[in-house]
Amino acid sequence: MLKKIQNWFDERIQLTALIKEFNGERIPARGGWAYTLGSLLAFLFTVQVVTGISLLFYYVPYFPEARNVTYFIKHGVLLGNILLGIHLWGAFAMIFFLLVHMSRVYFSGAYKKPRELQWVAGMVLFSAVVVLGLTGYMLIGNENSWWTINVLTNVASHTPFIGGFLRIIIRGGTETSVLTMQHIFAVHVWLLPLTVIMFIPMHLFFIRKTGHQGMALEYKNSKFESGDINKWKHPDGTVPFFPDQFYKDMIVALAVFAVVYFLAVYFGAEIGPMYRPLALNFAPEADWYFLASEELLKYFPGHGLIIFSTTIIPVIGFAVLFALPFIDRGTERSPFKRPAATVLGILFLLLLVYLTLIGAEPKAPATV
Ligand code: HEM
Asked: H-helix or E-strand containing 327?
């Protein structure tokens, strides 16, 4: 029976040949587990799409009601609690593993020529996923969401020349309103998911075209000189994607999903109190991945300096990261043979962890 179905498809779209072509991709042989991170991200994104669409059957992006609707999903809808929990912890897992995947790629120099396009497409994915997390946080519609929207749109208004205009565009007027929520909703459920859906295949296409570089340990027996760029096209050994890499990818995806499921069941998603637009003493709490950026705001207080934390540092930091393959043009990939890049990377990660930890300490109420 299965053979018959297979033949039916083969006569029309040569399905077997297509699957063979896909599964036959050669992967460097030694670092298999480190190369599961990319597939894990694609898997986690799929989980987000499935749970996100399920939530859409109930959710209403209307400010006074959004928080109560979310509360109803959690407490009144069959499996709503688990759906919300998986959507929240799945988002956290995706952002966390995005950082791990980027670090793997950075420390193995896999962004260098001819893999610049993989990195650039990756940076688009990174931006989209982080903003997805942020807009999702706002859609809960609770007190934190309300204040975060106000604080961030005020932060955007400090952008030189276009700040005021930017705030009006995001808010859909001068004040935060029902329209603001509608804008955030459109960005969260349409614009950003479509961006990710377009860029994942692009990212994979580029990887397929140049071949998977992997880490320096794949090139121990290379006959090419260390300065020769051809060295990084010929790993010592490769394995086919199926079954070698496929099973590793499956094991990691299922293990991470089990942890996400556990966190969703035991901790769930916190809904928080209804917003009070007239409250003057509320300190919004950012999600963990935004604590470092929020912390930066404290180091440059006041109108004269705030532009450093709202615009100058983030824009320069982001531009440098985006253009990394065009800035770092050395041919060496081993982290031990390019100490400057390795030390800078480690310092950056340490700073991120440090700012996140002190950002997690209790804060004074915000003034908006
Ligand atoms: C939704 C987000 C992402 C998905 C689904 C994804 C997917 C993948 C996959 C499946 C691979 C091959 C397997 C592996 O090495 O893990 C890969 C490799 C790669 N990714 Fe990503 N990725 C994402 C985000 C990023 C980001 C944020 C960056 C960097 C800014 C990035 C840069 C790269 C590079 C340069 C490679 C090639 C590595 C090599 O040749 O060794 N990716 N990605």
From this structure: helix 324-327
Under a CB-based contact definition with an 8 Å cutoff, are residues 222 and 237 in contact?
no
**What distance in angstroms lies between residue 135's CA and the mean position of ligand 1's atoms?**
23
Domains of the chain: 29-359 (1.20.810.10)
What are the Cα distances from residue 41, in Å, to 36, 44, 46, 129, 191?
Answer: 9, 5, 9, 10, 19
Q: How confident is the model at residue 165 (pLDDT cuts 50, 70, 90)?
A: very high
Whole-number Å distance, alpha carbon 122 to ligand 1 midpoint, is 6
Can you spell out the DSSP letters for 44-104?
HHHHHHHHHHHHHTT----HHHHHHHHHHHHHHSTTHHHHHHHHHHHHHHHHHHHHHHHHH
Q: Residue 323: which of 159, 111, 110 has the closest Cα?
A: 111
Q: Given a cut of 70, is residue 179 above it in pLDDT? A: yes
Tens of pLDDT, residue by residue over 20-38, are 998 888 999 998 899 999 9
- The pick from 48, 203, 239 for probing ligand 1's pocket by mutation, whose C-beta has the most ligand atoms within 8 angstroms, reads 203
- Range of weakest confidence among 219-228, 245-254, 352-361: 219-228
What is the 118 CA–ligand 1 centroid distance (Å)?
Answer: 7
Distance 241 CA to ligand 1 centre (A): 15
Residue found under tokens 């519609």: 141
Structure pTM?
A: 0.94
Ligand 1 atom at minimal distance to the Cα of residue 39: 10
Quick one: how far is CA 70 from the chain centroid?
23
Residues lining ligand 1, Cβ inside 6 A:
35, 37-39, 41-42, 45, 98, 101-102, 105, 110-111, 115, 118-119, 122-123, 125-126, 129, 200, 203-204, 207, 212-214
